[in-house]
Design brief:
The protein is mainly α and 377 residues long. Helix content is 72%, strand content 5%. It starts with 5 loop residues before the first helix and ends in a 10-residue tail after the last helix.
Length: 377
């Protein structure tokens, strides 16, 4: 790890030692809550207490309890992680802004959870083949959310302004044009009001596609480094990673619903959960518990797929710019500014890492060679 000083590596590892125990503790606590209420009559009792005796009340009670209880349980872990990151200079947002973000998240998740549970339990009460329609609905919802995230949800948490005309904006648009990617605009996100971390991404579809650059990246990195970050993100567009990921996510959601249906209708589990039948909304915590376990089991596989996608985007950036030296400078800049560990523990990386490690990315850039010119006759 000669690309990073002992002080930089030590600082990153100190941050990891401060953050990861809290993050893992939050995950374990959330899983414990789901299993504790989903595999006992506690969840059914909560749903009945929140929602009363009517079917609609129980659906509402299930939605409220499933959103609020995990949120309340997770707040101390999230707050502690935030304190640690603030100590390392990564957090710039005040507590008032943080609480506002928590509230915005609840205002999004509560209606979505209620709508999903209403649909599932209405179908379960109407037909024995409810899982077929629920699987199709989950796939469709995945596609809709992929479109809605950049267009509806992103503006709720950040403000975006057009990048000022100038050499960098021209260079980014020229980079996209050379890559054959149609871009509507180049926007700057006001990330600095929350963090000092650096990032950029390409958002939207078709005519709504735009390059988004964190204001922190503009004030910290060299223009050529910004181009390298955007070149990586353009690689995701060229290789259609978002549509592919959306399609894979939709398929996974549909298959997941089918597996969930087979598990949550198993009589012994329903007895544990205190539900006479799955169509009773009191089984909602059982549904959530099984889904949480499934997500935990599938998580490392999803991370492995993501790392492969990111490696391909890195190669694309190198092929588009033919500038491995600046790519290495960019990776070093991002790692140091974000206080990332250049070479984290292997087990931790395999379980939760969505990108190759900085050391791996730099090594790949050093090993990269431009393709040999093709002979023409």
């Amino acid at each position: 790890m000669g690309d990073f000083s002992a002080e930089e590596v030590g600082r990153a590892r100190a941050l990891r030692r401060g953050v990861w125990p809290v993050a893992l503790g939050g995950r374990v606590a959330a899983l414990g809550l789901m299993l504790g209420l989903g595999l006992t009559t506690g969840g059914a009792g909560l749903v009945a207490a929140f929602g009363g005796g009517t079917w609609g009340g129980r659906v509402a009670g299930a939605a409220v309890s499933l959103v609020l209880l995990p949120e309340v349980l997770g707040l101390p872990f999230a707050a502690r992680g935030r304190v640690v990151r603030r100590r390392f200079g990564l957090v710039t947002q005040g507590w008032g802004g943080w609480w506002a973000d928590v509230l915005r998240g609840l205002l999004i998740s509560l209606p979505l959870t209620f709508g999903a549970l209403f649909a599932v339990y209405a179908l379960a009460g109407a037909t024995g083949h409810w899982w077929v329609w629920a699987a199709l609905g989950a796939a469709a919802l995945t596609v809709v959310m992929s479109w809605a995230a950049p267009m509806i949800f992103e503006p709720l948490f950040n403000r975006f302004t057009p990048m000022e005309p100038g050499p960098l904006r021209d260079a980014l648009l020229a980079l996209a044009a050379r890559d054959g990617v149609t871009v509507e605009d180049v926007l700057v996100a006001d990330a600095s009001r929350r963090t000092t971390a650096l990032n950029a991404y390409v958002s939207g579809f078709g005519r709504t596609r735009r390059i988004v650059v964190y204001d922190t990246l503009l004030t910290t990195a060299q223009p050529r480094e910004v181009e390298l970050v955007v070149a990586h993100e353009l690689g995701h567009v060229v290789h259609r990673d978002v549509p592919r990921g959306t399609a894979l996510g939709a398929l996974g959601a549909a298959v997941g619903v089918c597996v969930l249906a087979a598990v949550v209708t198993w009589r012994p589990l329903l007895d544990l959960a205190g539900a006479d039948d799955f169509a009773d909304p009191r089984s909602a915590w059982l549904l959530a518990a099984v889904a949480t376990v499934g997500g935990a089991v599938a998580g490392p596989l999803g991370c492995a797929v993501s790392r492969g996608v990111e490696r391909r985007a890195d190669r694309h950036a190198l092929e588009l710019t033919a500038d491995p030296a600046e790519f290495i400078a960019m990776q070093r800049r991002l790692t140091v500014a974000n206080i990332g560990d250049p070479d984290p523990p292997r087990a931790l990386h395999l379980m939760f890492g969505t990108h190759p490690t900085p050391a791996e990315r730099i090594a790949a850039a050093r090993a990269w060679r431009p393709p040999a010119p093709q002979d023409t006759f």
